[in-house]
């Protein structure tokens, strides 16, 4: 189903004209499953990104690339799509999930465009919408949405990126003039890496410590004009260009500083906290900490969309690399003919588990989008659902962004020298998506949050079980650990496997076995860490911090395992939804490849704990090899089922040129 | 020992003015050890790369970057250094090893400069020197060395990169005119990715299938003029620009094609094969295969220098990231103060094992350079020493180039958003060094060669042992495997460890234990693979090829293990050479961190085979955590002992600016 916008072959495929053999997997069904819950929105977004005006050009200087992307925003606005998440009064339908789907797809045109659009609509305008109230919507939102005001989201400072609660910019209320006075008191307090800030921004949503009546009320957001119409900084405002970056050079990131900059009292985005004319502070959320995290909660949409965008990048890279691997030949085989790269088992091992991982991430992303949609449309917006969403997004974002970088890099190398040419896109995709691993929440910090949540949940379970119950849980774990340690788990596995390699393989393909292993990877790790972190008599805060440090690495690894467990479950639900038997069998095979690579990566962890028997452990690698070989004939149709067209790939080695060269060379022999 | 060319602090450090406390490690000694056998050449090369005229600029279009690098070659030539590897008549001293040392260091200025210099002097001129004879030295070499003739090394074709023996360009001898006629018969036969070919090259060493008297004699090299002085292609020659690349855009890579291009008979570089006026072919090496590999042998210097250059890139990245990690603070700790990034155990885990790995690669590189020097100066140039050198270079190049990419990426992420700015260099270093993993021998192909050599050596050992001896070796292995499998090895380990975690840790720090484990990783893997690949009655070539495929992944992993074993041994020899006890202790600690990360990576492999007991396996991760914590206070002095100056780092976050910002912010509180 490689489809081309020119021939309209998408339509053909959609209509099922390219039916597979009746007994084989139906790739149209897989295509639908991979497109997910917003299929039409997604396809419409992809159709838009076929417009060459939106595509990245390879040899522009930074200033020209920036100007090009700025102009592209207008094209997006003209399409109307970017208005959709906003309220009806602003041209929208409130389709929170669909909006992110459309953003994800911008990566195929130019990741800079995705991020620039994200800055303008997803951060700047969205902050006005979500953190502001009626006044701000009336006065600032339409200009932001309609690109009459370009704006920055000025949260991060040079000195504080991950720990935003500690930013040093202040907004001090002056009741005499009913204004806030914004200051960045030292160099580390300058706002930094702010998209739009170097050139385009005329205003910014500035995050600052609100001070009124001599008291700090924590971080709040303010609408602050920063430049005049001609682009000159307003009095008291200054800044610097962040200059060229490793990627995303279509986005003009910059630094901003403020010295006694005054904005009217009304410019405080006051949904979660307001200041009366006399300076009295009030908030619907009494706890400063909770208030802060509620405000930060609006950032979750950035994380959700970055996870999806990373998947998009990985899919493009895989389709380019696998198309080439199916056409490219090198070294004569036993029969004398040169072998197709993808027939080399090592090449399969390099690309196919990554294809399986991207399928897993895709099914996970759809569930994440649905969860996001339910919260942000108010359909199911509770404290608990928000916390669960934030936790899910943190795990998914870390996993998807790292996975994309790893996948794109492997694809690049698998294409050899051709993979290094700009015309084949890998390098630029990697360079652009690189920062996705650390912005909108550094992956390590996000995973630490996920890990802490795992610890909290574990503590809650113990507490809910009560004294005796908790003792039973701990004893049960101790018993399980002792049994595993004594080899009883391994013994049970040997018995279950009938002592044979085939039996071990059968067990490992059983979803129940897979789920138990993936779950144990999380739960046993948490149970190992938790006791050390329990406060007790004579345990100082410093002791606890030191112990936390000792277990930080293990906790973060447990959080990654949690992210993968979620992926496995999402994939398995997708398998279970599939009703066509051969199609379901293929999806199950790919899910198994995903599961086994995850288990193989942590093989040592399982074995030292006796959670895998040696024979079953040995079967993991063998089985993975065998399943990858079984997946190989389906690799190209599978990657094509993502549904991207030549106009999205735009890679010389995926254009069919290699097949033509091979045919010409073979004919000449 | 962060040293600055302006203050001359290098000299101070060299003179030992900054003596460490008497009981601590002596970092001047470590500095010397890391600089290796060509210390003076290396320092002189580094002094040259401080020249801003040689530095990469961040915002140049491809054409301007190319022009800048072309001009930089003249600066290098003026320094005289690039003449050193050539014979005396060409201004050289024949210092083969020192020449590569100087090349390695060019990476600090701009990897494009390293590669462009490598193309001109290391490939084009070196091919004339090594593949040509007196006539070619007299007629072509001086112009190549003195940059009067820019040239390409036209070996790779669009259709054949890794399998160069199958290139399709032909050079057909015409006795009537005593000329060779060069042809690229179809598109896949075009020369591709050829450095200098897009713009600068006026000539090329073209590799082609030599045909004379209607017979193919295999691949040979020809000196072929391709452009006139004004830069227009000569008749019959054409080409294309490879266009922008993911990195190395200072090098003008291009494609070349030839249609009936005639060159005089004398233009065959005929050291390894010549054609008489009547077309009679002769060669000092009768076997076509061996002749080809002998010619290719001259490529080994490219691999050696890429390994070293990758280490240089990784060192720069680590010094930038570790300097920042020592100054940057984020999140308040238990005491209220914000914590230094490098005090986070996870941050240590991310950076310090990589620092240990780069130390290992550095000591390995020095041994590789010495081996290269002995062969290429003729000091010890035998078939066997050449084969060993090629094998060593293949393993070291694969390991060093991948390690550099992994290290630079981790450093980039560890520096967060700041790491994404061009001013901090990580992204460009990664983009430039990316292709080092696949050019001058694709790492996967190189490792497969190393793996095949392991199999051959194993077969030879069996054969040398004779029938009964071979049976004993195999039986011994079977016994060892059975003992391991039955848990006897593990039991023996438990006994040796006294059943305690401390005992296990002690064993794992024992170099003999480390070496045995690393060696078993190679030898057991090879012994597992070898039997399946033994030809026998009823085993067809196709069967063998299929079986080879089944074991390809395992063989390549065994080859990586071999590369790491070599690194471990080189590191251990460096430890043993050190006579100052505290310095030696620190080197041993870093070596242990290297060893344990290698073992941890393959933990599952060891455990399923019973080569590690569960308790010792569990001790691996704990011990690695503990050793990394012990290494932490030495991290900065250690990375500074690589000896690079601010003029090499040229990164804003390594300039001390972060420390100044932190001090200002803390003073303001």
TrEMBL record, chains A, B:
InterPro entries per UniProt: ACOX_C_alpha1 (IPR055060), Acyl-CoA_Oxase/DH_mid-dom (IPR006091), Acyl-CoA_Oxase/DH_mid-dom_sf (IPR046373), Acyl-CoA_oxidase (IPR012258), Acyl-CoA_oxidase_C (IPR002655), AcylCo_DH-like_C (IPR036250), AcylCoA_DH/ox_N (IPR013786), AcylCoA_DH/ox_N_sf (IPR037069)
Signal peptide: none
Record's subcellular location: Peroxisome
EC number: 1.3.3.6
GO molecular function per UniProt: acyl-CoA oxidase activity; FAD binding; fatty acid binding
Positions with biased composition (Low complexity): 7-18
Keyword Lipid metabolism part of the UniProt annotation: yes
Residue span, Acyl-CoA oxidase/dehydrogenase middle domain: 152-261
Biological process (GO), any one: fatty acid beta-oxidation using acyl-CoA oxidase
Domain spans labelled Acyl-CoA dehydrogenase/oxidase N-terminal: 72-144
Protein family according to the UniProt entry: Belongs to the acyl-CoA oxidase family.
Official protein name in the record: acyl-CoA oxidase
Originating species: Amnibacterium setariae
């Amino acid at each position: 189903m490689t489809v081309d916008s020119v021939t309209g072959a998408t339509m053909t495929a959609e209509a099922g004209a390219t039916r597979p053999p009746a007994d084989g997997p139906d790739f149209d069904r897989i295509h639908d499953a991979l497109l997910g819950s917003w299929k039409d929105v997604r396809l419409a977004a992809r159709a838009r990104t076929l417009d060459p005006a939106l595509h990245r050009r390879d040899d522009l200087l930074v200033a020209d690339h920036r100007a090009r992307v700025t102009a592209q925003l207008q094209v997006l606005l003209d399409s109307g799509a970017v208005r959709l998440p906003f309220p009806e009064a602003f041209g929208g339908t409130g389709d929170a999930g669909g909006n992110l789907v459309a953003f994800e797809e911008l990566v195929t045109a130019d990741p800079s465009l995705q991020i620039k659009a994200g800055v303008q609509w997803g951060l700047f305008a969205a902050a006005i919408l979500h953190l502001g109230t009626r006044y701000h919507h009336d006065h600032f939102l339409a200009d932001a949405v309609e690109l009459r005001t370009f704006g920055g989201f000025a949260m991060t400072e040079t000195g504080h990126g991950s720990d935003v609660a500690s930013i040093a910019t202040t907004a001090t209320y002056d009741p005499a003039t009913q204004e806030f006075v914004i200051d960045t008191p030292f160099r580390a307090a300058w706002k930094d890496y702010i998209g739009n800030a170097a050139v385009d921004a005329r205003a910014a949503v500035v995050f600052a410590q609100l001070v009124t009546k001599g008291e700090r009320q924590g971080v709040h957001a303010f609408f602050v004009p920063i430049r005049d119409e001609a682009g000159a900084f307003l009095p008291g405002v200054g800044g610097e260009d962040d200059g060229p970056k490793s990627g995303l050079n279509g986005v003009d990131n910059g630094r901003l500083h403020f010295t006694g900059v005054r904005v009217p009292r009304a410019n405080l985005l006051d949904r979660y906290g307001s200041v009366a004319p006399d300076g009295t502070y009030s908030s619907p959320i009494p706890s400063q900490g909770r208030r802060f995290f509620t405000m930060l909660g609006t950032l979750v949409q950035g994380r959700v969309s970055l996870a999806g965008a990373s998947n998009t990048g990985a899919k493009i890279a895989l389709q380019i690399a696998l198309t080439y691997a199916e056409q490219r030949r090198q070294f004569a085989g036993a029969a004398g003919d040169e072998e197709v790269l993808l027939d080399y088992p090592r090449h399969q091992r390099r690309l196919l588990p990554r294809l399986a991982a991207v399928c897993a991430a895709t099914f996970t992303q759809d569930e994440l989008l649905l969860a996001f949609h339910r919260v942000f449309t108010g359909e199911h917006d509770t404290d608990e659902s928000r916390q669960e969403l934030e936790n899910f997004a943190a795990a998914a974002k870390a996993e998807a962004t790292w996975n994309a970088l790893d996948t794109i890099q492997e694809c690049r190398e698998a294409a050899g020298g051709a993979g290094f040419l700009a015309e084949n896109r890998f390098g630029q995709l990697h360079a652009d998506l690189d920062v996705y691993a650390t912005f909108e929440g550094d992956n390590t910090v996000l995973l630490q949050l996920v890990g802490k949540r795992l610890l909290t949940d574990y503590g809650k379970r113990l507490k809910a079980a009560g004294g005796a119950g908790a003792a039973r849980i701990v004893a049960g774990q101790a018993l399980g650990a002792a049994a595993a340690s004594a080899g009883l788990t391994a013994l049970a596995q040997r018995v279950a496997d009938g002592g044979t390699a085939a039996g071990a393989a059968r067990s490992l393909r059983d979803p129940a076995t897979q789920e138990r292993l993936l779950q144990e990877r999380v739960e046993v790790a948490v149970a190992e860490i938790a006791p050390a972190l329990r406060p007790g008599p004579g345990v100082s805060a410093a002791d606890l911090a030191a112990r936390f440090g000792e277990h930080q690495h293990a906790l973060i690894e447990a959080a990654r395992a949690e992210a993968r467990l979620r992926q496995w479950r999402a994939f398995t639900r997708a398998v279970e939804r599939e009703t066509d038997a051969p199609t379901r069998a293929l999806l199950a095979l790919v899910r198994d490849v995903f599961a086994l690579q995850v288990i193989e990566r942590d093989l040592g962890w399982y074995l030292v704990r006796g959670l895998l028997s040696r024979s079953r452990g040995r079967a993991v690698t063998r089985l993975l090899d065998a399943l990858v070989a079984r997946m190989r004939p389906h690799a190209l149709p599978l990657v094509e089922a993502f549904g991207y067209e030549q106009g999205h790939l735009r890679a010389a080695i995926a254009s069919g040129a290699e097949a033509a060269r091979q045919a010409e060379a073979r004919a000449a022999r």
